[in-house]
Specification:
The protein is mainly alpha-helical and about 300 residues long. About 65% of the residues lie in helices and about 0% in strands. The chain has 13 helices and two strands, in the order H-H-H-H-H-H-H-H-H-H-E-E-H-H-H. The chain has helices at about 5-20, 30-50, 50-55, 65-90, 95-105, 120-140, 150-175, 180-200, 210-215, 225-240, 265-275, 280-295, 295-305; strands at about 250-255, 260. It binds coenzyme A. The site of coenzyme A has 24 residues, from helix 2, helix 6, helix 8 and helix 9.
Length: about 300
């Protein structure tokens, strides 16, 4: 049998992507495709795991039984998403242990938003509403990813994340229709989360380092900027409908483009936060390290039994 040249294999791979075929773990893929997926999926998995913390701390204080139950269910869902994503990344050849030890050593990135504080119950509602809406827009796009296991994981995750949006929105509506103090609290939370949520879709295409290749190989099917614009166009009318204000005086609908104009976030702040210097990075990693240590006996018991 004649060995195919590297060029021929790449050409065949790209033709499969162009035909809309899914790439599966056992298929040939360029190393850069594999490494990009491992990077992105492991960061995504870490985000789900660390993402349990800012809202999880509110479980004991959730106002009422129904909200407590929904919040517990949401936080449990995030843990499940993390496991699903670690599995998808493992199939590409990097062990779960290695990914987790990089997270605990502070060497891995995870979503910027989870490094901000949640000082009020209103933050829980606003995270579910704003952050999860941005996440679902991004992940609906990723459900079309050329890498089969990632796209399939996204479909299940988006289904659950859509419920999380409802959980957050329901809490926000109750506060927006409540007392003056509750309305002020929810507005303050929108003010806190607006720019971090805009940053969540990633830096603009001119700064993004991975987008070009990710778009060419359909790991992502939309650019960071497109995803952010979709978020703004969807959420701004919702914010205003609740009698709340978008904390950006320049944010306005532009009839010519059919889009909202908005002020770009501070991209230097994103760089600082994702590189370890955000308001809560240390607190989040300390909590993860403690949880990892506390769970050691379970891992050891399972290993001994297998
Ligand atoms: N939070 C944390 N890191 C971010 C980020 C964010 N909001 N936006 C960008 N970055 C990081 C990237 O991971 C990359 O870091 P690296 O080179 O050390 O790996 C760097 O900033 C440059 O960004 P970019 O070239 O645009 O990366 P990208 O093509 O991977 O796009 C995302 C960034 C977040 C849009 C993309 O990774 C993605 O869609 N991830 C999956 C979704 C996800 O993780 N959601 C988490 C919320 S639950």
């Amino acid at each position: 049998m004649v060995e195919k040249t590297a060029d021929a294999r790449l050409e065949e791979f790209e033709a499969r992507i162009d035909r809309g075929e899914k790439i599966e773990p056992g298929d040939w893929m360029p190393d850069a495709y594999r490494q990009n997926l491992i990077r992105m999926i492991s960061q995504h998995a870490h985000s789900e795991i660390v993402g349990q913390l800012p809202e999880g701390k509110w479980i004991p204080y959730a106002p009422g039984f129904r909200r407590k139950l929904t919040l517990i269910a949401k936080v449990q869902d995030e843990a499940g998403h993390g496991q699903l994503l670690y599995r998808a990344a493992e199939m590409l050849g990097k062990s779960r242990e290695e990914m987790i030890s990089e997270l605990l050593a502070g060497k891995a990135k995870y979503a910027n938003v989870f490094n901000y504080p949640t000082p009020h119950w209103a933050d829980v509602g606003v995270i579910g509403w704003l952050v999860d809406t941005a996440a679902v827009i991004n992940q609906t796009m990723l459900a079309q990813s050329s890498y089969g296991p990632y796209g399939r994981a996204m479909k299940r995750i988006c289904y659950e994340e859509s419920f999380h949006i409802k959980q957050g929105y329901d809490a926000v509506v109750a506060m927006a229709r409540g007392t003056a103090d509750q309305r002020a609290a929810v507005q303050a939370a929108v003010d806190r989360w607006w720019y971090p949520t805009l940053m969540m879709s990633g830096p603009p295409d001119t700064i993004s380092t991975h987008s070009q290749l990710a778009l060419r190989w359909r790991i992502k099917t939309k650019s960071n900027e497109q995803v952010r614009q979709e978020f703004v166009d969807l959420i701004v009318p919702q914010i205003r409908a609740l009698g709340l204000t978008v904390p950006d005086p320049a944010c306005a609908f532009d009839p010519a483009s059919g889009r909202h104009r908005y002020t770009q976030p501070d991209w230097e702040e994103l760089k600082r936060v994702i590189n370890g210097d955000g308001p809560c990075n240390k607190e989040r990693l300390d909590a993860r390290r403690k949880a990892h240590e506390d769970g050691r006996w379970v891992r050891e018991a399972l290993q001994a039994a297998s």
